[in-house]
Amino acid sequence: MSMLSIKDFVADNRRDRTLLVLLPGAYMTAQDFVDHDFIGAVRRRPWPVDIIAADTGMDSYLDNDVVDRLHEEIIAPARISGATTIWLAGVSLGAMGALLYARLHREMIAGLLLLSPFIGSRGIVAQVEQAGGIRKWKPREIDNSTVETRLFDWLQSHEAGDPSWPEIHLAFGTGDRFAAAHRLLADILPSNNVIIGSGGHDWATWGILWERLMAAAPFGTPAGAEI
C-alpha cells in the first residue's frame, strides 16, 4: 500500500523549489499536521515552500522499510518534479524516520526539523549517558546491528557546518519522557539549533515548539519580508 499524503503546494513557476515533508509519529496521521496547525504556521509566513504531510504508518517502521518507501514514493518523485531543496520535519517516531532517511540519503536533504524525537530505547540511552555522551559512546558488539545503535553511531560523526550533513534543528519539552535522549542529541548540535520549552510529549507542546522553530526562519527570510 502506498503512503497516503496531504499536499499543499505553492502555485508558481519557480525553477528552484523548496519542499517540506512532515512525518507523523506512532499512531498519528498526516491529518494531524493540518488539525494542529503545522501547515498553517508555515503558510502564515512568506515562504514559497511546498508541503507534503506523509502517512508513514507504524507498519513502515515495524517492517524496517520506512526509508525505502519515503525515498521511492515521496523524495525521489519530488526531485524529478523540480524540488531542489528538501527539508524533513518529524514528530516523535517521525523524527526518528527523518534521521534514518538522512543517514542513508543525506545528500538529498538540506535540513531536519526534529520535535521530541524518539531515537532509542531507555537501555541504549542509558548506555550513551553512562559513556559520557554520543561522542564518547562505543556500541557493544552484540548490539551493533540494531537500528538504534547504527543511528547513534552515525550521529557520532556529525560536525556542525559540514556541508555534507543536513542542517539539524531540535526542539523538545523539559517534561518529555524522552528528554534524556534529546539532551544527548542537543549536546552535539550548535546551541542556536536547539529549542527547549516546557511541556511533555504531546501536541500542545509540539504546537508551541513548532511556532518557535518557524520564528527561527529555517527556510530563510525573503528580501523585504517580515517574519
Compose a concise summary of this entry:
This protein has 227 residues and is an alpha/beta fold.
Task: Give a verbal description of the structure.
The longest helix has 15 residues, at 66-80. This protein has a single domain (4-121, 164-214), classed as Alpha/Beta hydrolase fold, catalytic domain (Rossmann fold), CATH 3.40.50. It has helices spanning 31-35, 38-43, 58-62, 66-80, 93-105, 122-131, 147-155, 179-186, 203-215; strands at residues 4-8, 17-23, 49-55, 83-91, 111-115, 167-173, 194-197. The chain has 227 residues and is of the alpha/beta class. It is 37% helix and 19% strand. Strands 1-3-2-4-5-6-7 form a seven-stranded mixed sheet, with helices on both faces. α4 crosses α5. The protein is built from nine helices and seven strands.
